[in-house]
Amino acid sequence: MVTAQRRDEEIQDVPIAVTALDEAFLVRHDVQSIEDLGAFVPNLYTTNSVNYGAAPVSIRGIGGANGGGNFFNDEPVAVYLDDMYVGRLSLSTSDLVDIESIQVLRGPQGSLFGRNATAGALLVRPARPTAEPEGYLRLGLAEYGERRVLGAASGPLTDTLQGRVAIGYADVDGWGENTFTGENVNGREDQTVRLSLAWQASNEVTAEWMLERSNQQANPATINVAPVAPGQPSSPFIRRDDLDDALNNNEFSFDDPSDNETDATHALVKVSWKLSDATLVAISGFRDYGLRGRQDSDSTPFTLFNNSGTIGSTQRSHELRLSSNADDPFRWTVGAYHYSEDTDVIFDINNFQGLFGAGTAARFDARQQLESWAAFADARYAFTDRLSLTLGGRFSKEDKRFANKQTVATIRESVLPIDLGPFPAGSRIPGSTLFADPPVFTSAASFNNFSPRAVLEYDVLPNALAYASYSEGYKSGGFNSFGLSPAFEEEEVRAFEIGVKTELLEGRLRLNAAGFTYDYSNLQVRLPVPTGGVNIVNAGAAKAWGLELEASLLVTDRLRL
C-alpha cells in the first residue's frame, strides 16, 4: 500500500510514478540511509556530501541549488518523516532506523504535497506500535571498523494503548587517513532513539505520538580544487599528487581537523476521527535541528584557509485533512496546512592567519523567518469501471523575512613568507579597518502560488493501467545567505506525463513505464561569485524530458530480478 494520493491505495492503482520499498526490502538490501536509495529507485540520484550535514538528492535530474553557503535555499525534493515535512535536507545524512516503508514519488507533487516538491517527494514511514509483542536486535560489522546496532521492541501497554521503542547506533573509524596527523578521517558516529505510542480511544478515534532524538558526529576530509581567486582554473595549493593520493589511496593531508555534528529532535502527534462518510485527520509536528561544522578549506598542511559555522533551525507544522471514506465513483480530499520555520546561521572564514598571525577574517550572521499557509483539494470521479478523471489544486501563500550582517577585517598589513600559487613570497596583504559594529541589512518577500493537477486514467486490462497527467509545482523564492545579492524569485514547473502500469504472468512480472516533459520558469541555479561561494539566481526558462522503465520479475518464490 502507498499514500502517494494522501490515502491508502495499491501501488499499481495509483496514476503516479512511484516506487515503494517495504521493511523486508530495506533489511534485505541493507539500506542504511537515504544515500543508499539511488541504487534501487529509477531516476533517483543521491550522494554523500561533507557540505555541513546535507546530502544532495535529485529526481529525474532535478536537484537542489543549495550549497556554497546558501543555507536558506529550499530543495526541490520534499522529504516527509511520518507525514511531517522535514526542511533543510536534515534527514538526508541520518541513519534510517526501524523504518516500515519508503516511497519515492517522481514528478511535481505541488497539489498534494505543496511547496518545494517540484522534482518529487520522499515519504519515510517509521514502524508502528503493534498489538502483539514483537522485537528484534541486529548487529553488524563491516570494513573500516564499522560497528552497527539496530533494535526495536513493540507491544501492548494496556487494552487500548500500544508502544514501540527503537534504537540505532553506528560507529565507523573512517576510510581515509590524514597523513599529516596520522589520524583516520571520513568516520562518523550515529545515535538515534525513537519512542512511539498508538492509542485506540474509541472505535472512531485513534491517536499516534512519536518522539525521536538523533545525533551524528563526523570527521569528513575534503580535497578542494575550487578556485580561490578570479580567473584561476583551480586551487593553486593542490598538487596533482594530492589528487592522486585522495582519489586512489584515500590519503589526505591537512592541519585543521574537519568535523560536523548534528542534533535533531522530532515530535509529532496525529489524531484520526472516522465520521459517517469521511475521515478527519489532524497532524501537528515540531522539529529542532542544530549543526556545528568546521572545515579545512585549503586541504593542505598549512593554515591558509578554514571555515566554521553553526546552523539552528526550528520548524512547526499543522495540517487538517478531510477525506471521503467510501470507494464510490466520487472520491475527494480537502485540507489546510500551516508551516513556520526560524533559521539562524553564523559562518566564519579565516584566511592566512596561521602564516603570519594577521590575515583576514569574516563573519556572516544571518536569520530567516518563514511562514506558509495552504489550502488544497483533490477529487476523483469514475465515469465507468475503467475510466476516471482526477482534478486537484493547492493555493499557497508564503512570507519570508531575512536579516544579515557581515563583519570583515584585515587586522594589519602583512607579507607572505612563502610562495602561494600565483602569490609569490613577499606579496603584501594590505591592512584595513576592523568593522566591529556592522550594519544589519533586512529584506522581506511574499510569494503566492496555485498548483493544479489533472489526471486521466484508463484500465486497459484488469492488470494494466494507462494514465496521462498534467501537474504544476513551485519552489519558493528567497534570499542568498550572505552578501548583498538581490532576492531570487520562486521557481515554477509545468509537467506532462504519460505512463502505463502492468502486471503480467499471473502477477509475477511487474512492468511500469513513464515519459515526461518539464517546462520551467524562473529556474533557480547556482552562480559562482568572485568573492567565493555561490549565489542563487533565476535563469529564466528551461525544458527537460525523459523516459523511465521499472521492471520486477519473480522468477521463483526465492528469486526476484
Structural commentary:
By secondary structure, this protein is mostly beta strands. It has a single domain, classed as TonB-dependent receptor, beta-barrel domain (Maltoporin, Chain A, Beta Barrel). Helix content is 4%, strand content 55%. It is built from 4 helices and 30 strands. A 16-stranded antiparallel beta sheet has the order 8-9-10-13-14-16-17-18-19-20-21-24-25-26-27-30. The longest helix has 10 residues, at 240-249. The two termini are 21 Å apart. Mean pLDDT is 83; it is low at 225-236 and 417-423.
In short:
4% of the residues lie in helices and 55% in strands. The chain is built from four helices and 30 strands.
Report the end-to-end length measured between terminal Cα atoms.
21 Å
Q: How much strand content do the residues show? A: over 45%
Q: If you consult CATH, what is the topology?
A: Maltoporin, Chain A
Roughly what percent helix? under 10%
Average pLDDT rating: 83
User: From the alpha-carbon coordinates, what is the Rg to the nearest angstrom?
Assistant: 26 Å
The CATH class label is Mainly Beta
Question: How is the topology of this model organized?
Answer:
Blueprint: E1 18-22, H1 23-28, E2 44-46, E3 57-59, E4 77-81, E5 84-86, E6 99-106, H2 110-113, E7 120-126, E8 134-142, E9 146-156, E10 161-172, E11 176-178, E12 183-185, E13 188-200, E14 205-218, H3 240-249, E15 251-252, E16 259-274, E17 278-296, E18 305-324, E19 330-351, H4 353-356, E20 360-382, E21 387-410, E22 414-415, E23 428-429, E24 441-461, E25 464-475, E26 491-504, E27 509-521, E28 524-528, E29 534-538, E30 542-553
Parallel strand pairs: 4-7, 11-15
Antiparallel strand pairs: 1-6, 2-3, 4-5, 6-7, 8-9, 9-10, 10-13, 11-12, 13-14, 14-16, 16-17, 17-18, 18-19, 19-20, 20-21, 21-24, 22-23, 24-25, 25-26, 26-27, 27-30, 28-29
